[in-house]
Amino acid sequence: MHQFFVTGEQEGRDFITITGQDAHHIKHVLRMKPGEVVRVSGECGSYTCSVLELGEDFVQLDILGEANETELSGRIYLFQAIPKGARMESIIEKAVELGVYEIIPVAMKYCVVRLDEKKAKEKVRRWQAIAESAAKQSKRSRIPKVHSVMPFLDAADYAMECKRRIVPYENEQGMEGAGKALLDIQKGDSVSVMIGPEGGFAPEELEAVRSRMQVISLGRRILRTDTAAFTAMSLIMMRFEELENGSIF
What pLDDT sits at residue 249? Predict the structure, then answer.
């Protein structure tokens, strides 16, 4: 079942109207026919719909009923140091699949990649498109926002708005802190996760957050920045799922 997103003006009481690129995609790429079923998410909720009419520049859908909720019971904010190569694209794709609420690219001292203002804007547009594609593929009920690139201290201040704040750090010892950080998370919480770059956190960056956030270990092995992001996201996602649906163990 294909997933589409709409704005409030496209949502009616009994019908939803798809326009623009999505309408073209339904008609000319997917070649859908009346009666075929799709999932649609908008400002008023998520629905299972059937194709009713294929117009010149629109597709009208009949609302069959509410669709199952796919969002987590809390909000995860991923603060990701900008990595080299295409890793940021992979991180965004997987983070969206794992339920991230917002993604904040962060410029840190030891980041290999340095983006000027023009390149940063181009990257963010590309990253937001990847987030939308991943949200459709994973049947999310909303498209996570990818922020503009933030300097580290600005990102740290923004992370402080979350109720729980976690910083995986390769030199932190023991797993007790990680276990406690996960158990502290409760249904409805907002959780920030700060992931460092390939070169690690600068001493002054770690010092700036240690007193305000929970610095934890993800194990005795050194993880790449993308692996650390996937690992932390997976742990927090499973904690929220456990709170919503009960323990899996």
Answer: 64
Residue 114: what pLDDT?
87
**Residue pLDDT, tens place only, 220-243:** 999 999 999 999 999 999 999 999
Only one residue has tokens 């959780």, namely: 191
What pLDDT was estimated at residue 133? 95
Residue in the block written with tokens 């409030």? 8
Burial label, 193 (beta-carbon count in 10 A; 0-12, 13-18, 19+): buried
Nearest to 178 by CA among 104, 103, 241, 239: 239
Compute and round to an integer the Cα radius of gyration of the chain.
20
CB distance 22 to 16 below 8 Å:
no
